[in-house]
């Protein structure tokens, strides 16, 4: 049934360093994203969350290769495999179906070109069927959608504040009417009030346009504000998934617990509690057992020698990858280590 099909389905996605198949930056990642849903991908820097997004977009940097897994995007013609697409096929998917916002809002804009012209050119590049007037009309609509005065299309990037530039990046990401927007660290550089406004805007757009959103951030307070579900990554693997409400109220994986404890609540004291001691493992030298064992205060000999399977709660709404959980192992096969 097309209504029940996820917009995006990822199974066993694995990304390794070229020539070093054991060095997996993303290791058997599986998740679904429904239409209109916002999923947050959380974890410390280097956990593989951005690499996962880049693999989805076919934009892995030199030196990294997709070493396994499947990704399907639902379309009006049914689910379409992304993992078999050529570079050209992938370019057609980017912008028109999946687009990415936020990475370095300042650098993505040409400082000597009016912002409206930049967005119009992006539209015409990806939608050649639109003439200049139609593309200009679209620019006006996009400015209104991101709550910027359309007359400001004639201004240059430096004439916009940090928050307004984020709005421009969202406008650019929306330019070709995609089904899915991937946002990477959307608000890191912004002050608290501007951060709030950008998250509210994203939320409103998701409802108005029926967008799906994949939000990538190390900041759990950002995800709590914006997302329906969360997937926590550690050392290239998803270690816990569930609704934001449930995971925040009752985290089941020791890493999620530590991560939640290391973030102040939105509106709470701005002082950061101490970070989690230790550092994530080197992907080139993976742990034989649980990747979190060296930093986990509950690790025992089993944890240090055998990797935990992903386990699913009996009601099927949550998963976690930890030996301590009494839940049955998830049926998706584990890729061999
Ligand atoms: Fe900690 Fe063991 Fe669970 Fe890993 S499997 S998170 S080491 S308790």
How do the strands and helices of this protein lay out in sequence?
Layout: E1 8-17, E2 20-33, E3 38-42, H1 49-56, E4 64-75, E5 78-81, H2 87-93, E6 98-101, H3 105-108, H4 115-126, H5 132-145, H6 162-174, E7 180-184, H7 192-209, E8 212-217, H8 220-226, E9 229-234, E10 237-243, H9 244-249, H10 254-261, H11 301-305, E11 311-312, E12 319-320
The structure holds iron/sulfur cluster (SF4).
Protein model, in words:
Keywords: ATP-binding, Cell membrane, Membrane, Nucleotide-binding, Transport. One of its GO terms (biological process) is peptide transport. It is a peripheral membrane protein. Residues 266-291, 303-337 are annotated as: Disordered. It comes from Streptomyces spongiicola. There is one protein chain. By secondary structure, this protein is an alpha/beta fold. The chain has a domain at 1-97 and 217-267 and 278-337: 3-Layer(aba) Sandwich (Rossmann fold), CATH 3.40.50.300. It is 30% helix and 23% strand. The protein is built from eleven helices and twelve strands. The protein has helices spanning 49-56, 87-93, 105-108, 115-126, 132-145, 162-174, 192-209, 220-226, 244-249, 254-261, 301-305; strands at residues 8-17, 20-33, 38-42, 64-75, 78-81, 98-101, 180-184, 212-217, 229-234, 237-243, 311-312, 319-320. The strands form two sheets. It has an eight-stranded mixed beta sheet, with helices on both faces. Strands 2-1-4-5 form a four-stranded antiparallel beta sheet. Helix 4 crosses helix 5, helix 5 (132-145) crosses helix 6 and helix 6 (162-174) runs parallel beside helix 7. The longest helix is centred in the middle third of the chain and has 18 residues, at 192-209. The radius of gyration is 20 Å and the shape is globular. The relative contact order is 0.14. The model has no long low-confidence stretch (mean pLDDT 88). Iron/sulfur cluster (SF4) binds next to loops.
């Amino acid at each position: 049934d097309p209504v029940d099909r996820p917009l995006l389905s990822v199974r066993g996605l694995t990304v390794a360093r070229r020539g070093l198949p054991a060095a997996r930056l993303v290791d058997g990642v599986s998740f679904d994203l429904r239409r209109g849903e916002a999923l947050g991908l959380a974890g410390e820097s280097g956990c593989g969350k951005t690499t996962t997004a880049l693999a989805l977009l076919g934009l892995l940097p030199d030196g990294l290769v997709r070493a396994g897994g499947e990704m399907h995007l639902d379309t009006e013609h049914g689910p379409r495999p992304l993992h078999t697409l050529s570079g050209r096929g992938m370019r057609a998917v980017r912008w028109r179906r999946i687009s990415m916002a936020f990475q370095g809002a300042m650098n993505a804009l040409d400082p000597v070109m009016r912002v409206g012209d930049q967005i119009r050119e992006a539209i015409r590049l990806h939608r050649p069927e639109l003439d200049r007037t139609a593309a200009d009309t679209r620019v006006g609509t996009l400015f209104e959608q991101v709550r910027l005065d359309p007359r400001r299309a004639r201004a240059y990037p430096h004439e916009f504040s940090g928050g307004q530039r984020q709005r421009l990046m969202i406008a650019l990401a929306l330019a070709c009417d995609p089904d899915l927007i991937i946002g990477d660290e959307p608000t890191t550089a912004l002050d608290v009030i501007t951060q709030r406004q950008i998250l509210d805007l994203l939320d409103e757009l998701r409802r108005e346009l029926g967008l799906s959103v994949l939000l990538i951030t190390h900041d759990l307070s950002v995800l709590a504000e914006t997302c329906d579900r969360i997937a926590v990554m550690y050392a290239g693997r998803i270690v816990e998934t569930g609704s934001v409400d449930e995971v925040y109220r009752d985290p089941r994986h020791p890493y999620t617990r530590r991560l939640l404890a290391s973030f102040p609540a939105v509106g709470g004291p701005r002082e950061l509690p101490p970070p989690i001691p230790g550092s994530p493992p080197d992907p080139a030298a993976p742990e034989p057992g649980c990747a979190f064992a060296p930093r986990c205060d509950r690790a025992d000999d089993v944890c240090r020698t055998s990797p935990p399977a992903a386990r699913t709660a009996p009601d099927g709404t949550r998963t976690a990858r930890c030996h301590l959980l009494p839940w049955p192992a998830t049926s998706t096969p584990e890729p061999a280590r």
